[in-house]
Amino acid sequence: MPLSTITQLCTGSRYMTVLVLSGLPIEKIPDAIGDLFNLRHLGLRYTKVKKLPKSVEKLSNLLTLDLYECDIHELPRGIVKLKKLKHLLAEKITDPDWREFHCRGGMRITNGFGNLKNLQTLQALEANGESVKYLGELRQLRSLRLWNVKGIYCARIIESIVQMRYLSTLSVNASDENEVLLLNVCLPNLQKLFLRGRLAEGALDESPLFQAAEGQTLYELALFSSELREDPLPSLSRLSNLTRLEFTRAYNGEQLTFLTGWFPKLKVLQLVDLPNLNRAEIQQGAMASLERLELFKLSSMTEVPTGIEFLLPLQYLGFHEITSDFLTLLCQCSEIQGSQWQHSIRD
């Protein structure tokens, strides 16, 4: 779509409330965008736009700004004038499979973004010493995703998010594999937690994030590159409301055991790239509600998980990036014969 066409659209439809240009091969947005004083939603995801015009600060009624997977790395200073803004989606994908540590990136936001006091969704912010200072002013946030977090930022992040009493989704991603995420904070309304980075030894037992407090609502937990040495399941089994649990390079031990009665509401379990895991045991009555079991790249596994028959039938059972030897074991395993399962062979 030519820039002139978008300009005509803006000048000829000034009362427009929704403008979605998602997926179009456009690189610029005209200054005329500022004439859309009634605009509530601006969607530019999957475009090639590299910069927003200064006139975007005139969109005083804007509620949603969707820049997901654009080429924009920094927002204009005037963005802080959009005081009605509720949802800011601005994230860049580098690895769609979430395998690489640096699989996503956030947006740099200028000083003063604490003025966006009605913001409910911020995905995602590129953390730095300045940006984390203002997080505490965004007390209406329901969903927050942070990238490039260093350990030295954690204390300030804790001070900020503890003031977000409506926060239900939190994603914190460290700047590299060696940064330790120290998040000892109680978030009573948290429902989804995603942590990418090392966890301190004992964190699962000491941090309030993982405690089964009265009224605890956490139902999705994903741990990436946590470098856990002890079996995390005894600690996490206290979270009886979990419906989804994912470990990706999160555990360095050799065995996982799911005991009877653990994770009664769990529907999805993903175990991904646990290089030392060679044995998994599932006792009868564990994960009684499980619907999907997905095992990826468990290179040290030499036997089919013991007790897997107690989970059957499942809506989905997948063994991915396995060796041909492990495929032979699956084909010979009487416990899963008659069940449908998917597989892929490691390259």
From TrEMBL:
InterPro entries: LRR_dom_sf, LRR_R13L4/SHOC2-like
Keywords assigned: Repeat
Keyword Endoplasmic reticulum among UniProt keywords: no
One Pfam family recorded for the sequence: LRR_14
Ranges for domain Disease resistance R13L4/SHOC-2-like LRR: 31-315
Protein name: Disease resistance R13L4/SHOC-2-like LRR domain-containing protein
Species lineage: Eukaryota, Viridiplantae, Streptophyta, Embryophyta, Tracheophyta
